[in-house]
Amino acid sequence: MARIELKNVEKAFGKVEVIKPLNLDIEDGEFVVFVGPSGCGKSTLLRLIAGLEDTTAGTIEIDGKDSTSMPPGKRGLAMVFQSYALYPHMTVRKNIAFPMRMAKIPRAEQKRRIESAAEVLNLTDYLDRRPGQLSGGQRQRVAIGRAIVREPSAFLFDEPLSNLDAALRVGMRMEITELHKRLETTMIYVTHDQVEAMTMADKIVVLHDGVIEQTGSPLELYNRPVNLFVAEFIGSPKMNIINGEQASGIDAYKIGIRPEHISISTQSGLWKATVGVAEHLGSDTFFHAKVEGMSDPITVRTDGNMQVDRGSTIYLSPDEQKVHRFDSQGIRI
Amino acid sequence: MIDNTSSFRVKKAFGVTMMLVLLFFAALPTVWVLIMSFREQAAIFEPIWESPLAVTLDNYRGIARSDFPKALLNSFICAGSSTLLAMIVGVPAGFALAKSRLSGKFYASWLLLLLRMAPPVGFVIPLFLLYVNAGLIDTYFGLIVAYMTLTLPLIVWSMWNSFAQVPDELIEAAIMDGATLGKAFMQVALPAARPGAVAAAILGFLIVWNDFFYALIITRSSTVTAPVAVMNFISYDSVDWGSIAVASIALTLPILPLMVIANRYIVQSLSGAVKG
């Protein structure tokens, strides 16, 4: 169980400031996701918490204790890496036992924990295999097993699912969420995939260029993005951003409207548009439509069964309650 | 699918022929030495069909009675110790060079290459002068230290490469798991780089085992190594070819198994077997 506090934490590699001074509180038992485009500093931030990188300035407190210069192994955190980082020369059993061996936990207790972890993670039949003989999903579970047996005060995940194929990813996403619900341990999870962030997090931290853009629950971020960056980053497909006449008409520099908040009609509506490409997903269909007087096409979500031909005219009406307004700095009005 | 086209068969036949020719040239001297080692001294230069029965074990008996076994032991001591010592220093050095973020690594790599490429004469003459003054001529210590100028750069250089292939995340995982840097090195990084380490050790051993020049300059009598001892069978009035043949065989046999192991590990370490 751990509460993690970052106070004015800063990281520079040479002259490059990867993390600009930032403050962040992670509550005990929370599932926090760091999300952002590549190069935004999310992995570096995680490695700072882990102790794999030294902070340039600021302090990191774990459970109220200043851990800024504590070695990684003493922080009581367990980490799951993107490449799984399993020890190739050890069997699954020895991989999972490794952190306990380092902590000098008695043999019998090691055995008990290995067996219970293997059962939870469906690894019982694979304990005597080497990592090279396992599939990607199984390797990932071994890596998680190795983290669980330490009974850490917090788990750190560094893009753990990005090496898995799409179907497996959804399954592992559920497993990790399930694990969090059962263990109720603090988890910090880094990903560039906003879908992972939205589905798993209690709290999302959106990072961009080493700065925290916004912190909040998935729905807070979805409903009230504080700036254009968050507005465009959260949500799939991304929010339509419109400037010019339509924006200045309601006292904004730019306005944003999500594809799912636009209604579509063949008869009448606010914006007249020509249908471009349609993406049929079965459950939904996304139309890319060119609205008269707007430079960029608008994406609209409709029912999966709606059939509209390319090139035909439709009318779009944004839900006025759901329009986001931004000023010239990109800040929410 | 088996390719049975005639052009493929011609290519294959050509390849096999080339290999046989190569094998013949490689095997001929070895076979010759083997035959020579069993020939009577007087019959050595006669064609084998003229005196096919001039076979003897005298050459082997002579070698057994001579100083040569002692020289063979010296070779073992020198090659083994200088490799072992170079491994003890060189393997952690390679690890440090591969994984630390020190900015001076570039210079280290240059220095190592320089040491690897400099001709042995460049080391031996200053070493000889130094050794004469320090009384290290004809001592095991002197010879082993001298050989480390050969083995250490080789081992550091190749271990640097081997450890560079071990993913950083593996070592970071060990450190997160509570291992000290030493334990992460011994229990995670080193086993992952094992094929490279075995190959480096064997290559180091072979370099010293086959060396003639250093031993010729630095040894006198008690620490003479086998390649130099072979020279003792050449005297002013005659060359004892039979004994030389036996000595060559005695020099080759012990390293045969090493070559086989080395072959396997060099291939493994080149193919990046560390990736789990």
Description:
The complex is a heterodimer of chains A (333) and B (276). The relative contact order of chain A is 0.12. In chain A, helix 2 (92-102) crosses helix 3. A six-stranded mixed sheet of chain A has the order 6-7-8-3-9-10, sandwiched between helices. Chain A is built from nine helices and 18 strands. In chain A, strand 15 and strand 16 (298-303) form a beta hairpin. In chain A, 26% of the residues lie in helices and 32% in strands. Chain A has helices at residues 42-50, 92-102, 107-120, 136-148, 166-183, 194-200, 218-223, 228-233, 245-248; strands at 4-13, 16-26, 31-35, 57-62, 65-66, 77-80, 154-158, 186-191, 203-208, 211-216, 240-243, 254-257, 262-265, 271-280, 284-291, 298-303, 313-318, 324-326. In chain B, helix 4 (105-117) crosses helix 6 (140-164). Chain B has two domains: 6-37; 62-270, MetI-like (MetI-like fold), CATH 1.10.3720. The interface between A and B is medium-sized, with 28 and 21 residues.
Quick tags:
heterodimer; A: 333 residues; alpha+beta; Rossmann fold; OB fold (Dihydrolipoamide Acetyltransferase, E2P); 2 domains; five-stranded antiparallel beta sheet; 18 strands; 26% helix; B: 276 residues; mainly alpha; MetI-like fold; flat; disordered C terminus
Summarize the structure.
The complex is a heterodimer of chains A (333) and B (276). Chain A is 26% helix and 32% strand.
What layout of secondary structure does this protein have?
The complex is a heterodimer of chains A (333) and B (276).
Chain A: E1 4-13, E2 16-26, E3 31-35, H1 42-50, E4 57-62, E5 65-66, E6 77-80, H2 92-102, H3 107-120, H4 136-148, E7 154-158, H5 166-183, E8 186-191, H6 194-200, E9 203-208, E10 211-216, H7 218-223, H8 228-233, E11 240-243, H9 245-248, E12 254-257, E13 262-265, E14 271-280, E15 284-291, E16 298-303, E17 313-318, E18 324-326
Parallel strand pairs in A: 3-8, 3-9, 6-7, 7-8
Antiparallel strand pairs in A: 1-2, 1-4, 4-5, 9-10, 11-12, 12-18, 13-17, 14-15, 14-17, 15-16
Helix pairs in contact in A: 2-3, 2-4
Chain B: H1 6-37, H2 58-65, H3 68-99, H4 105-117, H5 120-134, H6 140-164, H7 168-176, H8 181-192, H9 194-210, H10 213-218, H11 226-229, H12 241-252, H13 256-270
